[in-house]
Amino acid sequence: MLTLFELSELLTALKCDYEIIQHNQPILKTEDASKYFDYSNTAPVFIIKTEKGFYALIVSNQYNRLDFKKLAQDLGFSKMKLAEKSDVLKITGYEVGTIPLIGHNLPCLFDKRLLAFDYIYGGTGGQFQTLKINPKDVIRLNNNTVEIEIQ
To answer: Is 95 helix (H, G, I), strand (E, B) or coil?
Structure first.
């Protein structure tokens, strides 16, 4: 688990194109985000459980709903579901809703749709900061990242 300072140091050392945006309240819905950045570029991180273990799933917020059954089939898993809150905390060290784009230490499934943006916005591990980063840096810095296409 990275502190905000450690995350910033890592991103700087690895020459990432990023910014950490401070806000006064947690971002819980799109109206909250619109006060600080273009929420159409947000990329939530979901921790999913499959028969092969846990993964970080980074997707565009432009989907109304994810069909985990179809996604599992498309990706070669027999089953896929959101991890339990207690598992998320135990495995990543982060609470649900604060999982960072980088630093969760899980294999990563990355939605190719996000590559259309110069920057995406997502978690830092804290409730009062958002990471603005080039999506290519997210791919580069995560473990075992697989780019996926969501149908």
So the answer is: coil
